[in-house]
Amino acid sequence: MGEKVKVGVIGGGLMGREVASAFGRWFAMRDCPVTPELVAVADLDEATREWFRQVGTVTWLGADYRELLAIEDIDVVYVAVPHHLHERIYLDVLVAGKDLLAEKPFGIDLGAAERIVAGIGDRFVRCSSEFPFYPGAQRFMAEVGSGRLGRVLDIVAGFHHSSDLDASKAANWKRQSATCGEIGVMGDLGMHVVHVPFRLGWEPESVYAQLQKGYAERPDGKGGRTSCDTWDNATLHTTVHIGSDPVPMRLEMKRMAPGETDTWFIEVRGTEGGARFSTKEPKTFWSFRIDGEQQWQRTDLGFGTPFKTITGGIFEPGFPDILMQMWAAFLTERAGALGERFGCATPEEAVRSHRLFAAALESQENSSVVRL
Ligand SMILES: NC(=O)c1ccc[n+]([C@@H]2O[C@H](COP(=O)([O-])OP(=O)(O)OC[C@H]3O[C@@H](n4cnc5c(N)ncnc54)[C@H](O)[C@@H]3O)[C@@H](O)[C@H]2O)c1
Description:
- By secondary structure, the protein is of the alpha/beta class.
- It has 2 domains: about 5-125, NAD(P)-binding Rossmann-like Domain (Rossmann fold), CATH 3.40.50; about 130-315 and about 345-370, 2-Layer Sandwich (Dihydrodipicolinate Reductase, domain 2).
- The chain is about 30% helix and about 30% strand.
- The chain contains 10 helices and 17 strands.
- The protein has helices at about 15-25, 45-50, 65-70, 85-95, 110-120, 135-145, 175-180, 185-200, 320-335, 345-365; strands spanning about 5-10, 35-40, 60, 75-80, 100, 125, 150-160, 205-215, 215-220, 225, 230-240, 245-255, 265-270, 275-280, 285-290, 295-300, 370.
- It has a 9-stranded mixed beta sheet. Strands 3-2-1-4-5-6 form a 6-stranded parallel beta sheet, sandwiched between helices.
- α4 (about 85-95) links the parallel β4 (about 75-80) and β5.
- α1 crosses α9 and α8 (about 185-200) packs across α10.
- The longest helix is centred in the C-terminal third of the chain and has 20 residues, at about 345-365.
- It is globular, with a radius of gyration of 21 Å.
- Nicotinamide-adenine-dinucleotide (NAD) binds near residues 65, 85, 104 and 188.
């Protein structure tokens, strides 16, 4: 069991529930030194709060998150609310003396992200980004570090949804800049895309952005129509330096990608080797070799997650599994015991992601390459 950590959730929607689900089967973890316990949930919506009554460890439910922050023995707060509320609520969590697992994009824009960072003080803060915890993503990073690639020629990373293809789907806060942010889809999916490249030292030095909007209007869910003004698709053509070589790195974030539901992918190709992982094949890692012929080889990794669980080694991992892994990394790093394992996205990485997205907006505005 190890150390127990009491967690409060602010925002019990899509992601707040996923966290309750992850904690609910923590007994499956074999080597995490910390056990989280969800004790309190704040959400404005009563029906949303009621759902959490089935979670046995929850002893407090309420609409006002400031009351949750006043509960003394809550150690960690997870906040999953619309982006325009990040800055206010994250700073209130920090002022209350709690540690924070923040959701991306970590503030609605660059200025908000910087102000949140300025308020961190000695609290432990990380930003949610779970896809690097897939065994295939972990192997990808190991392959890049192995030196087997030769000279890197190109890099592509992305996250594709098709959630906005259906024009009859009602708009929510993610479709409006006032609540999602001017950066639109980059705020929604961007941190997921840049986390691994940033960790590998692939830091964009310039960006040329191609941004696309989706449907200008959608049903409002109340019988009327409402406007939708966010960027739905973003393709960022960036340049990174690997050693003394400039290398093109394309970053794709799309909410209108026909045929895709939740596809996170990353690929690198070099003169001697390459590596590729996509959640379309969640247990499969592809590596490129030149051995007389040029070959892409597939390796089925099974359930080789960073933190071991009771799950059979041949089984395939999915979203709820990697979310648990991310939480295990957060809690273990907070306890000072992460060691060599991969850590969650840092506030500094979140700010860097915002710098890139702000530059992408400028690039789109002027049809120009923007230097970072
Ligand atoms: N890590 C991931 O894979 C992932 C996936 C989806 C969303 N997210 C992020 O999670 C955050 C929330 O997204 P979501 O999809 O869960 O949204 P959601 O709309 O499903 O849930 C948001 C919840 O916040 C509540 N809320 C709004 N204002 C509040 C307030 N003042 N106090 C308390 N509760 C309040 C709403 O009632 C709602 O239940 C966003 O930052 C989003 O980018 C992350």
